[in-house]
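Checklist before submission:
- one chain only
- standard amino acids only
- sequence pasted in full

Submission:
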Amino acid sequence: MPFYKLSTQPSDTAAVKVQVEGHYCISMIDGGKGPSTLLPIIFDTDKVFGQDTTFSKAHGFAGKSVNELIASKQSGAAKTSSAFAAVPSTKLNAGESITITSYYGKVRRSEERRNAGA
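Returned file contents:
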């Protein structure tokens, strides 16, 4: 489960405060009649939006597949937080649907993720 955070607290002061709190996300796709499958998370905003700091266009998908984005190295430190459940590929016939369930949270330290939701 990825953990992503800013490295310092954003504020308009002369003092710098180190940020240890962060966020996590876990997502799964409902298998219908079978077991649910955990989905990979794309948490690096640069991978999705490229250099678009307004986050209005997903430039990262231009010429890249979801599988390529998942396989590339991600960085979640010192960036605006994000989390996107990545469905590598799926085919739906007419009238079929899938359900993606995601849980988002915030913890004080990375180690607390394993106890989240317990």
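Reviewer check: The chain has a mean pLDDT of 76.
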